[in-house]
Amino acid sequence: IKIAKAKIKHAEYNNNSFTVNKQKNILQELEQLKSDIESNINNKYLGLAEGKNLIIIQMEAINNFVINLEIDGEVITPNLNKLANEGYYNSRFYSAAGMGNTSDCEFSSIIGLYPNGNDLSIFELDGEHYPTIAKEFKKEGYTTFSVHGNEGGFYNRDYQHISLFGFDEHIDQKKLLARNPNLEHIHDWISDDALLQECVNFYQEQTNPFLSYNILVSSHAPFGKDPQVEEFYNKDLTPLANSYMSYLKYVDKAIGNFIDSLKSTGLYENSIIVLYGDHTSSLLISDTESITKKDYSSIEFRLEMQNVPFIMIGEGITPVIDNSAHTNVDILPTMANLFNLNPSYKFGANMLSDEHSLVYNPRSLDLIYDDFVILTPSKNVYYTNKNAQKLKRKEINKYIQDFEEYKYLNDLLVGSQYFK
C-alpha cells in the first residue's frame, strides 16, 4: 500500500517552536507527497473537466445504507440511486469528521488533511497559507463560493471560509434572503430545496467558470415534524427511523429538483457534480437495525455509521461502483486530476486511479482498508472481506507504524505554524 512516510522525529515537534530544521524537514516531506501526483495520474481522466464548473453538495447526515434502500417495496432515495448508477459511486467512502462533525468534514474536504480528532478544527486553526481546493481553482480563474442556509457566524463560516479556506465569498442565510425574502425554511434554516434552487439562479449570473461548495442542513437532527416534509411511516421502523426516512425522502427530492433545474438551464452539461454525506445520521443501533434488517456487532455498527455515499457525475465520468476504501482527504487529489490542477502537495489518493488511500477515523483511530479494519490500540483485526488472507502480527504492527507516521505528518501540518 502506497502511503507517504514522515521521517520527522516526534521529539522535534512543539506547538510553541518552529525551527529552520523543522521547516526544512516538512518541505522535504511535502515534495515527496507532491511527486506522487505525477506518478499516480490516471490519464483517462486527466484534465477531463478542465474549464468546467465544479458543484459540490455536502449532504447532512446521510449514511451510505440509504442508497438503493427499499422499505416494503418503496424506494427511499430514487434520485440519489439514479445518480449513483449514472456516474462514479464509491460505496466505501468513510467520513473523516472528528470532534467537529460537519465543520471537520468541510475542513478535510477543502484542505485535504485530516482533523486531529481532538479539537473543532474550524475554531482551533487559523492561517492564510493552507493550500485548499478553493485556492487551487482560483489560480485557474474560477469564481469560488460556499453556500449554507444558516447564519454565517455559525462555525465561524463567514470568516473562516474566506480567510482560511480561500473562497471568494460565503453566501449565508442573510445573503440568500436578501436575494429572495420568500425562501422557505425547515427548522431555523433555509431549506435544502430552496437553497439549491437559489443556487441555480446565482449560477446563471456567473461570467467565469465557478466552484460552488453547497452545504445542506435540512436533514439535521432532531427530525421533528415540519410542513415541508411529508411524513413516512412503517410499522417495523422505530419512531426515530421513521422520522429519518421522512427527511431522507425530502432531501432526495430536493436533489432531484436541483439536477432537473441544472439541465433545464443548460448548466448540467458544463459541470461536474459531486455529492457526499458529511457524517453519521446519529441513529442508535436499534433504529438502524430496524431500517437495514441487520444485526450489528459494535465494530460493524461503527463502520456503518462512518460509511457515507460519494457520487460524482458529469460528461465523461464512466458509470462505476468503486468498493475501495476512501475518505474526504481524497477529494482534492481527485479534483486535481480531473481539472488538471497543480496543488502544492497531495496527502490523499486519486479515487479515479488504482491508488490506495490510508483511511482512518480521527476519533477511534480505526484503520480502514479494503479487506479489513485494524482497531488501534488493541491491534485487533476485523475482516470486511471474509476471504481475505489473515494478517500476521508483524504485518499488523507495520500497518500501525505506517499509520502513526502518516498521522504524525498530518497533525504536524494541521497544528504547526507551517501554514500560518
Structural notes for this entry:
The protein is α/β, with parallel strands linked by helices and 420 residues long. Helices cover 36% and strands 16% of the residues. The protein contains 13 helices and 17 strands. It has helices at residues 20-39, 78-86, 102-111, 121-124, 133-139, 157-163, 173-179, 192-203, 239-264, 285-292, 298-306, 331-339, 393-415, and strands at 53-59, 70-71, 74-75, 88-94, 143-148, 169-171, 185-186, 189-190, 210-215, 271-277, 307-313, 320-322, 326-327, 359-360, 366-368, 372-375, 380-383. Strands 1, 4, 5, 6, 9, 10, 11, 12 and 13 form a nine-stranded mixed sheet that branches. A four-stranded antiparallel sheet has the order 14-15-16-17, covered by helices on one side. Strands 2-3 form a two-stranded antiparallel sheet. Helix 8 (192-203) runs parallel beside helix 9 (239-264). The chain starts with 19 loop residues before the first helix and ends in a 5-residue tail after the last helix. Residues 1-18 have low confidence and may be disordered.
Helical element count?
Answer: 13
Largest sheet: 9 strands, mixed
Q: What's the helical proportion of residues? A: 25-40%
Order of helices and strands: HEEEHEHHHEHEHEEHEHEHHEEEHEEEEH
Calculate Rg over CA atoms: 21 Å
- Low-confidence spans: 1-18
Topology, element by element:
Elements: H1 20-39, E1 53-59, E2 70-71, E3 74-75, H2 78-86, E4 88-94, H3 102-111, H4 121-124, H5 133-139, E5 143-148, H6 157-163, E6 169-171, H7 173-179, E7 185-186, E8 189-190, H8 192-203, E9 210-215, H9 239-264, E10 271-277, H10 285-292, H11 298-306, E11 307-313, E12 320-322, E13 326-327, H12 331-339, E14 359-360, E15 366-368, E16 372-375, E17 380-383, H13 393-415
